[in-house]
Design goal:
Order of helices and strands: EHEEHEHEHEEEEEHEHEHHEHEHHHHHE
CATH topology of the largest domain: Rossmann fold
Low-confidence stretches: 391-398
CATH class of the largest domain: Alpha Beta
Shape: elongated
């Protein structure tokens, strides 16, 4: 006997009422996509549950994949047996013995199949007695057990689980539309992308590249970060914008104190055009309120003027350590701190304006025609599709 299924439990999705089918269908597609490389693994649904059929595959690597899928509240290794009392007893004992350091246990039976001849409470007693008689030094604790052996008696079969592994929760990626992530290469923007994905958002990314001031390694760093985000969702298109000429013009022609604000406005203008082309309905940024000059309330107000697209700012209320902690958890931190500068750090004004006014910025922009350089940047965009099979890093190309 061995674990032959992974039981997937929904969290927030269960509250979606009449729309729940859409969310469950997307979750099933996402799980199937993540486990497709394991031979003969199947994903199926039954009432209120989803199962991954292992079909002889080792469960651990598949569990690791499933733990990174948004929409899953928790997972458990499960044994499927026929609806026969003796087989259920055997499977419950096996499940209990797989857990380490067990002093107390509890049996919880759900008799969803009302045709099963033994009622839930009676089945609890039957299984509890069996487990006590077949083990030593273990007692029952119905209030705070070390292990809860869960038994679900369904129409088609009975499923037995013991341990529970937490999932990421949230909503399945692909259920909340698509957003364009401004991916700089720092710590914040990949975390923002991750948190947007947790709300079911599918992301594409845009990166502003300014060679020779920014290197090919800086660009590859961004592609690596996008690849790390694919572990939690789908493939990601990364749009690389040639930004050198436009950036040079901004910092040459505009007042130094306003150059950073105007540069951000140009980024939003270009990003909006990419959204229109790709059918994307919002932008996502790693901005945090008050962290740098371009992230004050006044700056955001002035920068936002150039687009009416919704701007998702998942980090806006977080302190830096919270963001760093998440970046460690999702595996982006070590890549983010690689010392390759992006376009936001190479041209830094000595005293950037922290309270830029819209009327002044509009006046300064009116004194120079940036439209040819904006169009040139749009026409020069290179798009790369990143999957979890993309080369691991720039070093793989050498």
């Amino acid at each position: 006997m061995e674990f032959d299924h992974i039981l997937i439990r929904y969290g927030e999705m269960a509250l979606k009422g009449k729309n729940i089918k859409q969310f469950i269908n997307q979750l099933q597609q996402n799980v199937q996509q993540k486990v497709k490389d394991f031979p003969n693994v199947k994903v199926k649904r039954t009432q209120g549950r989803m199962f991954v059929l292992l079909n002889g595959n080792e469960p651990e690597p598949i569990m690791e994949k499933c733990k990174k899928i948004f929409g899953i509240q928790s997972l458990s290794l499960a044994i499927k047996v026929d609806n026969e009392v003796e087989k259920v007893k055997e499977a419950a004992l096996y499940a209990l013995k797989q857990e380490e350091s067990v002093n107390t246990f509890k049996v919880s039976v759900k008799r969803i199949n009302k045709d099963f001849p033994v009622r839930s409470q009676e089945m609890n007693q039957v299984l509890g007695g069996h487990l006590l008689s077949k083990t030593e030094g273990i007692t029952v604790d119905v209030h705070n057990p070390d292990v809860e052996v869960k038994v679900e008696i369904r129409k088609e079969a009975t499923y037995i689980t013991s341990g529970v592994t937490r999932g990421l929760g949230g909503l399945p990626v692909g259920t909340s539309g698509k957003s364009l992530l401004l991916l700089s290469g720092g710590i914040d923007s990949p975390v923002a992308g991750f948190l947007a994905m947790k709300r079911g958002v599918e992301i594409e990314a845009i990166h502003f590249h300014s060679p020779p001031y920014t290197s090919e390694r800086a660009k590859q760093k961004v592609l690596d970060l996008a690849k790390q985000l694919t572990k939690f969702g789908k493939s990601i298109k990364v749009h690389i914008v040639p930004f050198t000429k436009l950036q040079q013009e901004i910092f040459r022609e505009m007042p130094d104190a306003y150059a950073m604000t105007i540069m951000r406005r140009m980024m939003f203008r270009i990003s909006e055009e990419v959204c229109k082309k790709e059918g994307i309905l919002s932008l996502t940024t790693g901005e945090n309120l008050g962290q740098v000059a371009s992230q004050t309330m006044d700056s955001m107000h002035t920068i936002n003027e150039v687009t009416n697209y919704p701007i998702i700012r998942p980090l806006v209320t977080m302190d830096k350590q919270e963001v760093i902690n998440i970046s460690h958890d999702i595996g982006t931190y070590e890549t983010s701190i690689l010392p390759y500068e992006d376009c936001c750090t190479i041209f830094v004004p000595k005293s950037p304006k922290t309270k830029p006014k819209r009327d002044k910025v509009n006046y300064y922009e009116s004194t120079y025609d940036f439209s040819p350089s904006i169009q040139e940047a749009l026409e020069g965009i290179e798009t790369t599709k990143i999957t979890d099979k993309t080369l691991d890093s720039f070093s793989d190309l050498l």
